[in-house]
Amino acid sequence: MAQYTKPKKIKRKEHLLKDGQVCTANYFVSKGCLRMYYINEKGMEQTTAFAIENWWVADYGSLDRQKPSHFFIQAVEASEVIALDKRIENELFTKLPKLERYCRIIAQKALAASQLRIKYIYDFSGEERYKHFSKSFPEFVQRVPQYMLASYLGFTPEFLSKIRAKKL
Cα separation of 44 and 88, whole Å? Predict the structure, then answer.
């Protein structure tokens, strides 16, 4: 499998993908933490996803259609990823049906998590979202800067400071 992939080291704050570029690979995080975000209509960064060790990340819409992305993928900390090029991935799926099944299961789990996140944004208060997230993903709370975490949870860094001050 190593002959089909490209290991890549990424410095903190370096981008794997920028808005307007076509996403050409699926990235497996072997070390570090990445985030996906976009710039909203107010010019603010809106974090939509994080990925840590053993997680995959890509702009799947851009990757699938080979159209320009609306997202950025950036290293939150110095990271190492393994890039699996879209064309090679498709060849491997033909040769290795178990790999395609594995990727489908990963994609289904990611979609399910995304659907739950949307539900939580609508149903939970900001405090409830933070409490649920910090219990479900404690590794992120310490690794991710407060402004990124606040953006992901749908509120301001100042509101997050107030929540944390309550020691939830």
Answer: 35
